[in-house]
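Hi Prof. W.,

I finally got the TLC domain-containing protein prediction working! I wasn't sure whether to trim anything, so I left the full sequence exactly as given:
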Amino acid sequence: MHDPFPLARPESLLPYVQPVADFLSLKTLPLHFHEVMIAFSLYHVTNRYISPALSRSLFPRIYPSFNARTKLNWDVHVVSFVQSTLICALAFWVMGQDKERSEMDTQERVHGYTGASGLIQAFAGGYFLWDLVITMQNVRIFGIGMLFHAISALCVFSLGFRPFVNYYASTFILYELSSPFLNIHWFCDKLNMTGTTLQLVNGIVLLLTFFSCRIVWGTYQSVRVFGDVYRAYNAGAVTLSNPEFGKLNNSTVVGNSGFKHDILQFAEGQTVPLWLAAAYLASNLTLNGLNWFWFGKMIETLRSRFDPPIGTRRLETKKALLIPESEPVLVEGTDVVTPSAIEKDAEDFIDAGADIKLEKSRSGTHLEVHQSEVRSRTSTRRRG
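And this is what came out:
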């Protein structure tokens, strides 16, 4: 299937992109570099302009009250929500419409290429590029661990432009199906909706989607890609010639020559180096291990938001506070605000010693306030 993206690449930029693609052995990047930059720009504009404006409009009291760190996290979560929703919709569309993809064999799943799967690679790569930039700009907030994660995610996903396991771009990007619900859970906490019915229902859907798409689907597809990469590694260099016809030549192509040659147009002579297989499979194993770890943490975190028997949240019991008689006391509240306000040098102050008396009961926790009085500063202030 050809690339369905409606905008053609700008040919004027190709001379600048081609040398980089050749140096990195990313043969299909020149076909999709404009999509990478469009995706990057979309996420940058969403983070920088759309999210702040929309959030101030929808939550005029809450969003402006956030400090700079929380606003940054909020806007990043908005971008994550937009990206995960968009990329999953594209992936489902490609998996349903790309007939060539559904007919691929092992060799084609590893070395093959279709324009539609390249579009998925490009939009995912644009997001990981944006994620790397925003993490580098705020490394003190996100931490060095998130920086290494952003670098590795961009590098590993860029391998699809070799092309390498381009078929699995749509497959593994469906990990993101759980991300919209994860972001909604985070938004509920920031909007003072912790423990609400909305968060409970969303949390259940989050666990179901995370378990389905990352644990079940992800583990199954990891086994498939491990098998494909192993067989491609043992098969050696890719050739479009049929060895059963004896001497190899350009005329002895396999079966549906046009179909196969189109998918493997960038694969002639390609092999799966040991470093490439090891790096990809190690990254995949690490991500799957993290998915299992995160799933347990998500259950623990979700239960901490709710009361038993569903959750594990417990009511905090306040311990009795023993106040020594000699210790100064500051009283705050609605009943006693400014007892015995005394004017001195045109300024008010509280004579706490005259009006606040400590009396210990048997429990040692009784505080009694005598002669509490609220005076208006404006009515008692001297004039002239």
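The first helix runs from residue 14 to 24. Does that look reasonable to you?

Thanks,
D.
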